[in-house]
Write a sequence for this structure.
């Protein structure tokens, strides 16, 4: 197994409900280490750029509006198989389908307001980390 880095966002529904610590604890319990973290307010342009792959999806505009509706916490997570491990602890996109004990099962409000984002591949993790962090902001 390889040590990987993945990218995570604690979404506005979660920061609004003061769940940053509870979610970070679940990530840490899953064996992931927070090696970079910052709380930011995304601009519309930034959110549209980040979610550019979803531009043609019917939920794109709603998603962007949601993601700029409040602060988010962007994080770089490091650990063995970090990309897959993070996807496992996040749970299914729709919390109604998420397994017990996952972040989305415990905290998400809906398929859109689903508390966390996590990179879906190592390749996208690198792109997403570079989108939000300078190398010197990441301390492993
Ligand atoms: P994420 O990218 O946030 O980690 O989530 P994901 O891979 O599980 O889901 P994805 O298909 O990439 O969708 C990105 C985000 O868009 C919102 N969404 N809304 N209204 C809808 O049907 C719908 N479907 C997806 C969610 O916030 C999802 O996380
Ligand atoms: Mg995704």
């Amino acid at each position: 197994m390889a040590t990987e880095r993945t990218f995570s966002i604690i979404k506005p529904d979660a920061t609004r409900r003061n769940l940053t610590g509870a979610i970070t604890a679940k990530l840490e319990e899953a064996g992931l280490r927070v090696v970079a973290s910052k709380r930011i307010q995304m601009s519309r342009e930034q959110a549209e750029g980040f979610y550019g792959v979803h531009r043609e999806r019917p939920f794109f505009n709603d998603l962007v509006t949601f993601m700029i509706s409040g602060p988010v916490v962007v994080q770089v997570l490091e650990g063995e198989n970090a990309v897959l491990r993070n996807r496992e602890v996040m749970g299914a996109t729709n919390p109604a389908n998420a397994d017990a004990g996952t972040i989305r099962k415990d905290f998400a409000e809906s398929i859109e307001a689903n508390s966390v984002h996590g990179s879906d591949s190592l390749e996208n993790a690198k792109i997403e980390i570079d989108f939000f962090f300078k190398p010197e902001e990441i301390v492993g």
